[in-house]
Structure formats: structure tokens, C-alpha cells
Design a protein that fits this description.
Layout (H helix, E strand, L loop, with lengths): L22 E9 L5 E10 L4 E5 L6 H8 L7 E6 L2 E2 L5 H11 E4 L11 H5 L8 H18 L12 H14 L4 E5 L7 H17 L3 E5 L3 H5 L3 E6 L2 E3 L1
Parallel strand pairs: 3-8, 3-9, 6-7, 7-8
Antiparallel strand pairs: 1-2, 1-4, 4-5, 9-10
The protein binds adenosine-5'-triphosphate.
Adenosine-5'-triphosphate binds next to helix 1.
């Protein structure tokens, strides 16, 4: 029997030959549950390997845009293309499969598992990865925690906001994603640590030709991006 919503299968981005897709949004409209429009994007492009900053006032629609790009939020109309894959045309399970295989998310509402250690959280993708990829995910998670200066053996329940943010960054990158999507990645950090994490994220994107898309109010982070768009009143402006 065929499963009606069988998730599409996507090979992990790097294993598939370091393929990083271009991003293109066209004529996208997002509605709130009550039908009110909350985001319109006429056109937004981020060629593979771009560091794209998203800025704008509070409540303008920046996180909504990032959720759409991550396939976490359905759109009412338009196209959300990562290469040839249109997230807007996919079923939810297919979007989930795409996200797990290709995207690394550093989102504040993407909760860590409190009772697990930083190392277990950072390597959590090993739980659903094919057996052959698990050891590599765990090894990368450990190296990333080291690089980000996050203590690997402590439960995240005992960690500060900044430490948790670093664990989230390690978790996002442990799958070796084609693109890193970050929502206010430096928000809980002091200046020194914010600069360090922003520098690490940019370096890790550049080293592997990954796309980095970051929503931020942090002028230093925004200034270090290749391209910046502004979201104002639910509209994306160049
Ligand atoms: N599920 C929802 N139901 C109703 N309104 C929503 C929903 N999600 C977002 N909104 C509204 O959409 C608008 C954009 O929200 P969003 O979180 O994207 O803004 P933002 O620019 O990221 O803000 P901030 O910088 O404060 O995080 C806001 O007016 C918000 O209240």
C-alpha cells in the first residue's frame, strides 16, 4: 500500500557532493490563522554561498520570513525554491524531510532537551540519521561544541542563555547542512561572545560554501553579511 504522505527522500547535502542550492522566493504571501496577511515577498534571491542578513523593526515579519524559508510555515501563495525544490508545493512531511537533510536551524523556539547533555543535544540528529552517518554526526557535534566553546558534558538545564545558544549552533551544524538559518543568533550573548559566534558562523558558512541567512538586530552581525534585506510592515525590501 502506498502511504499518501510518504516523505520525499533527500540525500544529506554534503554527502550528495557538496550541493548547495540557490534560494529564490517569488510572489510569496503568508497569512495569519485569522486570514490577516503578515508577510509579502515579491522576490528574494540568495545565490548559493551568500551570507544574507534580515533586519527590520520588531513585529515586521522577520521570523515569519525565516520560518517560511525553513519550510516551517506554509504559504498561501507563491514559490519558495531551494534549487529545484519548491517548499511551497510540498506536503508537510516532505518539507520536514528536506529541512532535516539540508538546513541547519538556530532558532530560539527550537528547544533543546533539558535533561540531555550538550553533546547529546548537539548530536541529536544521529537519532534519526541512517546508521552509517551517526558516528560522523557525533564526531562533528563534539568538534563544534569545542569550537564554539560550549561545555559538552553538562546538562543544558544548567546552562546560561549564551551557552545554550552555542549548543544550538553546534546542533545546527552537526548535520553538515547546505544552509544555516539563524534567528537572532547573538541575542543572548555579550559583545565579545556575540562577535565570536557571528565570526564562527560566517567562517563555517564560507569554509564550505554554505548559505547563511540570519535575522538580527545586531548591527555588527548585519554589517558582516554579503547582502542585507529589510522587512518593514510585513514586506521585504532590498
Ligand atoms: N501565528 C500567528 N498568529 C497571528 N499573528 C502572527 C502569528 N505569527 C506571527 N504573527 C504576527 O506577524 C507579525 C510578524 O511577526 P514576526 O515574529 O515575524 O516579527 P519579527 O519581525 O520577527 O519580530 P521580532 O523582531 O519582535 O522578533 C507580528 O505582527 C505577529 O504578531
Amino acid at each position: 500500500m502506498t502511504r499518501p504522505f510518504a516523505p520525499a527522500r533527500f540525500a544529506p547535502a554534503r554527502a550528495a557532493g557538496a550541493f548547495v542550492p540557490d534560494l529564490l522566493l517569488e510572489n510569496v504571501e503568508v497569512l495569519a490563522p485569522d486570514g490577516r496577511p503578515i508577510l509579502r515577498v515579491a522576490r528574494l534571491e540568495a545565490p548559493a554561498g551568500t551570507a544574507l542578513g534580515i533586519r527590520g523593526p520588531s513585529g515586521a515579519g522577520k521570523s515569519t520570513l525565516l520560518h517560511v524559508v525553513a519550510g516551517l510555515l506554509p504559504v498561501a501563495s507563491g514559490r519558495v525554491m531551494w534549487g529545484d525544490a519548491d517548499l511551497a508545493a510540498m506536503t508537510e512531511p516532505a518539507r520536514d524531510a528536506f529541512r532535516r537533510a539540508r538546513l541547519g536551524l538556530i532558532f530560539q523556539d527550537f528547544l533543546l532537551f533539558e535533561e540531555l547533555s550538550a553533546q547529546q543535544n548537539a548530536a541529536i540528529a544521529a537519532a534519526w540519521a541512517p546508521a552509517r552517518d551517526r558516528a560522523a554526526i557525533r564526531a562533528r557535534a563534539e568538534a563544534l561544541l569545542d569550537r564554539f566553546g560550549a561545555p559538552g558534558d553538562r546538562d543544558v538545564a544548567s546552562m546560561s542563555g549564551g551557552e545554550r545558544q552555542r549548543v544550538s549552533a553546534a546542533r545546527a551544524l552537526a548535520c553538515d547542512p547546505a544552509a544555516i538559518l539563524a534567528d537572532e543568533p547573538t541575542a543572548s550573548l555579550d559583545r565579545e561572545n556575540a562577535d565570536r559566534l557571528a565570526g564562527d558562523l560566517l567562517a563555517m558558512a564560507r569554509e564550505a560554501g554554505r548559505t547563511l541567512i540570519a535575522v538580527s538586530h545586531d548591527p555588527a552581525l548585519i554589517a558582516s553579511m554579503d547582502q542585507v534585506v529589510q522587512v518593514v510592515d510585513g514586506e521585504v525590501r532590498g
